[in-house]
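Re: Re: ligand-bound prediction request (bumping)

Still looking for help on this. To restate: I need the protein modeled with adenosine-5'-triphosphate bound, output as structure tokens. Inputs repeated here so nobody has to scroll up.
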Amino acid sequence: MFGGNENSSTWKIGSQIKFTVESGLFQGVFTSEVIGINSRQGLIRIKFPMSEGKLVLLPVGTTVTVGHEALPEQDNKYIIIERAGGENRSLVLKHMDFEVNRLVCIDPPRDRQLISVCSGKGGVGKTTLAINLAYALAELDYKTCIFDAALGTANVDVLLDLAPRYHLGHVITGKCGVMDILTEVQPRVHVVPGCSGVQPLTQLTIYEYNLLARELQELFRYFDVVIVDTSAGITPGSVNFVLAAQEGYLVTTPEPHSITDTYALLKTLVTQRTRPLNLNLVVNRVYYRPEAESTAEKLQFAARKFLSFELGYAGFIFDDMRVREANMRQKPIVEGEPSAAASQSFRAVAEQYCQPADGKSRGQGGLLERIRQIGKRA
Ligand SMILES: Nc1ncnc2c1ncn2[C@@H]1O[C@H](COP(=O)(O)OP(=O)(O)OP(=O)(O)O)[C@@H](O)[C@H]1O
Ligand SMILES: [Mg+2]
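Reply:
Sorry for the wait, this slipped through. Here it is.
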């Protein structure tokens, strides 16, 4: 909650803050009172400063240099990120570290602990994959968390028949943290619910993405795998999460328009990446295995030839009307109908996740790893 951690902060609630502004509109030294602190997110809420008996209406985006003997010179720049009016009139200052201008890179402590699920075309089965992969990995003894970052059109909660009171929208507005909204579906599957029908959440600022990225990192302490469901297409929503995560499943169907949209997203991701990116294709709604293989080959060939990028292949999912029926019942097919063709396909993708090409088990929660550990103890 905003206002926490004040004891460990440079600032104290109630203390005076003095800062210098040199913007096009305002110049001068102002003083105000600190009324809230969130050290973990580098935020200070202050009363509106006054000058000659008038409020100084500093706009959002203004850079301020604060004076504090405990802060080295290079560390005293803040930016105004929020201006609240009415009775709660206040300004929120955000510490001006690199995160204000650049996307945070999410670095999970363990290899492949974070997977984003994205697609060029909508409705190709991202959410269905995210949920069933989580359940299939849970069967393999991985503690999994689905982070519903398809902001604006989030629906993991709907497909799992959850009715969460709080969601990522509340995290973005600072009402609570990600751990406050975590919802248990079964002992090894949890969900961080997203929100739908909230238009401003489809256009987050970099600061807001970074806030979510930082919150997401809390989950690595509790889960073996965090699966991020994203919205379709070349939107900042999907691109930012995939680039921050570094690791992703790119979902396509064998249909030509899905393949071209997949290539378009892939091209954007490859050209915008600033560090290594590991993307693996999942071909969904497949009738015959060769159909999946030829789809993967086409995209892998195009990625290699035109983007000089090695696109991986994580497997395929059979088209199975029981997937739709399971979604209608709001229960993942992997759990409800374990012997269905699609359930077996989801399990194959999960098993492929656990068995990388180098033969080492991924993460520390894998069944094989646990068996090995037990063997060592015996
Ligand atoms: N393997 C499959 N076999 C049959 N139907 C499927 C399969 N995978 C997904 N579907 C169906 O396709 C539809 C879209 O699935 P889903 O919502 O998972 O897609 P999405 O990519 O998350 O969509 P959006 O882009 O809107 O987020 C759903 O009706 C789902 O039941
Ligand atoms: Mg979806």
